[in-house]
Design brief:
The chain contains twelve helices and two strands, in the order H-H-H-H-E-E-H-H-H-H-H-H-H-H. A two-stranded antiparallel sheet has the order 1-2. This is XK-related protein.
């Protein structure tokens, strides 16, 4: 039985970040910064409540009579209780022989074009541990992008405004960044396991390292770009964030409407249509929050029974990263143009290049992961490099077509002048030809 290490990591990050947020908000209260205190508490308590709700929902305690567990969730102690329960199951499973087991069939990764199907016995204890791992993975994603990401952006913005980085705030920002990167990593692993549920997926340490580096560069540069842009253009940053959020929030709903699929009814039997709609709205809300800071490995598809797309859309990922890179470059350019006197002691061109190179480094590690370290790369029908090359070919074709249209326009502008000159020259030449012809005839 696999050790529930992911459950422990999720709990440690959750508890440490919540404790750090409470300590920092107390410091803001002592300094008289009520607005920063309220925002810090808001970004700490709202995702904490959503984590409790997700754990309670995934374990399907809605249909079970467990008042003590419900009370502990209301007291915001749900993750601690679930972690203790997971470790109790893990350590007691070896001493108790289970009378009932279930048999699962998984296919191995293909070797030389062949894939074998293997059977594995799964006991009740291992099934419960899988449920705990799945619940904590989803809770880590919620905590990362609905709590840690806004919290990191807020604290970095406060550091720039106050021109000071305190020890407590720096520790809190490091914890928030680790929580976001870990949540993005769990999102990647969840997407792989959902898409390739029929296969026995084993993720190697090199894959974890590539994902960690990819997400670290991508998220750190994205947060820094938003904070720098917001420090000089405070009103416009809200419009940029709102536009990004609304686009990604309504994108799954527009796809669902265009597919004309029936409304999903199999999420939870106890939920009504209104409850199902609320759950779907929360899911798309989380999806928009993830794509605000990084690429969501799990693409929401409301017409699918699992609500997650099973296909690997390289072109959609390529377009996302090209547009996001252009957006980051534009926001940095606006910051460079409208930067205040505070940035006189900062080498703005160097910082501009460092942030763009950092984002490109994240894209580089992403390419390395999908090209060499992905556990299911043998199942890909095409690679991401092929999608990149095809997108660059399309861009090259568009540029060449634009140049050709410009050249044709210039030729069309010059052609009336040339024809006018030609007509004028023909009029001057014709009388001479006629006079020469007349003189020749008279001499004859």
């Amino acid at each position: 039985m696999k050790f529930p290490g992911s459950v422990l990591i999720s709990l440690v990050l959750f508890m440490s970040e919540t404790a750090a947020a409470l300590c920092l908000s107390a410091g803001y209260r002592d300094e008289g910064d009520d607005m920063w205190r309220l925002l810090t508490l808001l970004f700490a308590l709202v995702p904490c409540a959503l984590v409790q709700l997700s754990l309670h929902f995934i374990h399907r305690d809605v249909s079970r009579d467990r008042p003590l567990v419900l009370l502990l969730h209301l007291l915001q102690l749900g993750p601690l209780v679930r972690c203790v329960e997971a470790f109790y199951i893990y350590f007691s499973a070896e001493r108790v022989e289970e009378p009932y087991v279930s048999i699962t069939k998984k296919r191995q990764m293909p070797k030389d074009g062949y894939s074998e199907e293997i059977e594995k016995e799964v006991g009740q204890a291992e099934g419960k541990l899988r449920t705990h791992r799945s619940a904590f993975s989803r809770a880590s994603v919620i905590q990362a992008f609905l709590g840690s990401a806004p919290q990191l952006t807020l604290q970095l913005y406060i550091c720039i405004l106050q021109q000071e980085v305190t020890v407590a705030r720096s520790i809190f920002m490091v914890l928030s960044l680790l929580s976001i990167v870990y949540g993005a990593l769990r999102c990647n692993i969840l997407a792989i396991k959902i898409k390739y549920d029929d296969y026995d997926v084993r993720v190697k340490p090199t894959a974890y390292l590539c994902i960690f580096m990819w997400r670290s560069f991508e998220i750190a540069t994205r947060v820094t770009v938003l904070v720098l842009f917001g420090s000089v253009l405070r009103v416009w940053v809200f419009l940029v964030v709102l536009l990004n959020f609304l686009c990604f929030f309504f994108y799954p709903w527009i796809q669902f409407w265009l597919s004309r699929s029936p409304f999903p009814e199999n999420i939870e039997k106890e939920l009504s249509r209104l409850g199902t709609t609320i759950v779907l709205c929360l899911l798309t809300f989380l999806y928009a929050g993830i794509n605000m800071f990084c690429w969501s490995a799990a693409q929401v598809e409301l017409s699918d029974p699992d609500l997650i797309s099973k296909s690997q859309n390289w072109y959609q990922m390529t377009v996302y990263y090209i547009v996001r890179l252009m957006e980051n470059a534009f926001l940095l350019l606006m910051w460079y143009v409208y930067r205040t006197d505070f940035y006189l002691y900062v080498c703005a061109p160097t910082l501009f290049l460092q942030l763009l190179i950092g984002y490109c480094m994240g894209i580089f590690f992403m390419l390395v992961f999908y090209q060499f370290c992905h556990p299911c790369k043998k199942l890909f029908s095409s690679s991401i490099t092929e999608a990149l090359l095809s997108c660059f070919n399309i861009l090259y074709f568009i540029c060449q077509h634009h140049k050709s249209t410009l050249l044709k326009g210039k030729v069309a502008m010059k052609s009336p002048e040339n024809t006018g000159e030609a007509r004028g020259s023909s009029k001057t030449i014709d009388p001479q030809n006629r006079s020469v012809h007349q003189s020749a005839s008279s001499n004859a």
